[in-house]
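ok trying this again, last paste got cut off
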Amino acid sequence: MKSLRKLFLNFFITLFTALIFVSCQSRSENKEQIEIIDKTIPSKKSAAIDNSKNLKEKVLLDYIISASSIQPNSKNGTPFDKLDYDKIIAYDFEGSEEPYPSVIDKHGKFVPVVLAQKALSQIQADKILLALTQKSTYGEGTAACFNPHFALVFYKNNKMINQINICLDCNYLIADIDIPAETHFKINKRTPDEYALTGFTKSGKTAIINLCKKLGFYYKNQ
């Protein structure tokens, strides 16, 4: 009888030990899986915008008021020859197709990734606007993306009336106002497959890069 009891006791001890081992191993595996998942999901903190280098909304708005005024120039070409503005401010920003395809969003607010701003002088404004209205500025291909780093915003009485956002890497601009020269070069003319090559030519890129060099903006190194 004693030997039988001893046998049952050894059996239960062995069974209990095995259950503890399996349970511990399962918890260990679950812990490892959780650690792997945690490492693969980026934290919200790391994905947040680094606001330390970006200009605040108040700084941007105050600058509009203090910026020097300029005059529209009828020699600049369509459509800027008829556009009524009194200031043009250039912006250096870290744009992206989403969520920041323009320096001022659809709600009329500056996006939180503006790095620098500079009001254009009359000479600077006339030179870049003349370039942007020339057919020789457009006629090359473009990329499917749009990650702008440069913008020109037109103001009248300190209110935005037009903005042009430019991505040299993607090789085109998006403006609130139509620029006829941008679509002058057509492929498959007078067919259902007709489309325009709106990408910047070498001279178009040069005009933008030269202005960015004077302003000390991102595209100065292109």
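PB: full thing came through this time. The longest strand covers residues 159-167.
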